[in-house]
Structures are given as C-alpha cells and as structure tokens.
Amino acid sequence: MSACPECGGNLKFDPKQKRHVCQSCGLAVTREEIDEIRSKNTSLNTNTEDEKERRRKDYLKWWSTKK
Ligand SMILES: [Zn+2]
C-alpha cells in the first residue's frame, strides 16, 4: 500500500484503469506518475530560489548596519 502524492491518502490499484486511485481525493495515477509528482513536490519544497533571496536580503541587512 502506498500513499497518495497529493494528499497522503491510501492508494488502491484499479485493474480497469491500470492506475492507483486515491481513496481520499480520487487522484488516479500510474506508478511512474507517482514518482514524478513526488520528485516535483520535493524540488518545490526545497525552494532554492527563496533561500537564495533570503540570504541576499540577510547580507544586505548586515551590510547596511555595518556602515
Ligand atoms: Zn489523494
């Protein structure tokens, strides 16, 4: 049993659709799509751009207080 990549609900394999169907939100995905969505979500959660921006602002703040 695997968890839905969208809501974390239970996925049940549907032989008719050849997809795993989420019992909570109704998402129907193949095994490949589950992996794809999971990897996308992981990269979104990392938020590399925001982290860079935050560090830049911290640096600017430090620089302006130094004067
Ligand atoms: Zn779901």
What does this structure look like?
By secondary structure, this protein is an alpha+beta fold. It has one domain (11-66). It contains two helices and three strands. The chain has helices at residues 31-46, 48-66, and strands spanning 11-14, 19-22, 28-29. It has a three-stranded antiparallel β-sheet. Strand 1 (11-14) and strand 2 (19-22) form a beta hairpin. The N and C termini lie far apart (59 Å). Zinc ion binds at residues 4, 6-7, 9, 22, 24-25, 27.
Question: Topology of this structure?
Answer:
Blueprint lengths: L10 E4 L4 E4 L5 E2 L1 H16 L1 H19 L1
Antiparallel strand pairs: 1-2, 2-3
Average pLDDT figure = 88
- Count up the helices: 2
The portion of residues assigned to helices is 40-55%
How does the helix and strand content classify structurally? alpha+beta
Q: What characteristics describe this protein?
A:
67 residues, alpha+beta, three-stranded antiparallel beta sheet, 3 strands, binds zinc ion
